[in-house]
């Protein structure tokens, strides 16, 4: 296992994985992950299909808990606290560590209520109009929707819907925003807008993004983890972290041959 946490350690670590193994039933899907996620940076996970990028991402906000056959060994910490500790409430975890999914999934409610609904459920008692505006501004959507807040979120374009989902996530004032291929369903212009937004968001949030798009990783990420798969007995494919380093190094001077091959488009 090769990973480079030295550079990532130069800034504060928010999330830490130590020897993390993830199982679905008896199947060891992801093996031996050591990884530090630095604060207020964008970290990208890249790698071939099935190497466990989304699986690991979902471990950071306990979203895998919803899968009955999921099991994790090793340690995942958030601010030095064991995220899988007995006293940890997964709902609180998901409030601090939000998730934006591949397909924009606004609620079938107005643009305003897409923000207000989650905030209310989470006990927000402040000025709702202010929160809605702040969140939509934070997601670079305010100017496009400020005159139609009562309209359905589903009536927006795909790119706007995804920014609405980002607004909905940041309205809960998380510290970390996880993004699982957030642009894969978007056209190039919407993609660019979301990428610009990611740049802005890292001022206030720590971002971890799974992407199949290597240009996207090189454009948005400060650090990149390259995940790979090995075939094990029984034909199963096991994911592992092959290399983790500043994005520039991963793309221009990778230390592992597999990384070199992947980033130059020779496999995957
Ligand atoms: N709910 C599940 N139940 C059983 N196996 C699963 C489940 N989710 C993922 N897996 C398996 O775990 C492995 C890792 O999958 P995962 O989706 O995390 O990979 P990925 O790198 O994100 O892939 P992709 O790039 O195709 O989205 C795969 O072998 C997959 O089949």
Automatic annotation (TrEMBL):
One BP term from GO: phosphate ion transmembrane transport
Keywords: ATP-binding, Nucleotide-binding, Transport
GO MF annotations, alphabetized: ATP binding; ATP hydrolysis activity; phosphate transmembrane transporter activity
Keyword Transport: yes
InterPro entries recorded: AAA+_ATPase, ABC_transporter-like_ATP-bd, ABC_transporter-like_CS, P-loop_NTPase, PstB-like
Residue stretches making up the ABC transporter domain: 15-254
TM segment ranges: none
CC terms in the record's Gene Ontology section: membrane
NCBIfam families reported in the protein's UniProt record: 3a0107s01c2 (TIGR00972)
Listed name of the protein: Phosphate ABC transporter ATP-binding protein
Gene that encodes the chain: pstB
């Amino acid at each position: 296992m090769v990973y480079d946490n030295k550079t990532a350690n130069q800034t504060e670590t928010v999330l830490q994985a130590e020897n993390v193994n993830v199982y679905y039933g008896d199947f060891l899907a992801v093996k031996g992950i050591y990884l530090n996620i630095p604060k207020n940076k964008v970290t990208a996970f890249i790698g071939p299909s099935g190497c466990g990028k989304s699986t690991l991402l979902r471990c950071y906000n306990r979203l895998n808990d919803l899968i009955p056959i999921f099991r994790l060994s090793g340690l995942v910490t958030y601010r030095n606290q064991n995220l899988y500790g007995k006293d940890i409430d997964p709902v609180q975890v998901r409030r601090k560590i939000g998730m934006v999914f591949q397909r924009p999934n606004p609620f079938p409610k107005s643009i305003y209520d897409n923000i207000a609904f989650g905030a209310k459920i989470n006990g927000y008692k402040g000025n709702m109009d202010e929160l809605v505006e702040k969140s939509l501004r934070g997601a670079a959507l305010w100017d496009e929707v400020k005159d139609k807040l009562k309209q359905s979120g589903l009536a927006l374009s795909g790119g706007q819907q995804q920014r609405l989902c980002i607004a909905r996530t940041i309205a809960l004032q998380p510290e970390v925003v996880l993004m699982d291929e957030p642009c894969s369903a978007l056209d190039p212009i919407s993609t660019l807008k979301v990428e610009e937004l990611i740049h802005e968001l890292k001022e206030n949030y720590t971002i971890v993004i799974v992407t199949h798009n290597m240009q996207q990783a090189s454009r948005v990420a400060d650090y990149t983890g390259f995940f790979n798969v090995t075939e094990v007995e029984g034909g199963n494919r096991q994911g592992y972290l092959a290399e983790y380093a500043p994005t520039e190094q991963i793309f221009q001077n990778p230390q592992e041959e597999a990384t070199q091959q992947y980033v130059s488009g020779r496999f995957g």
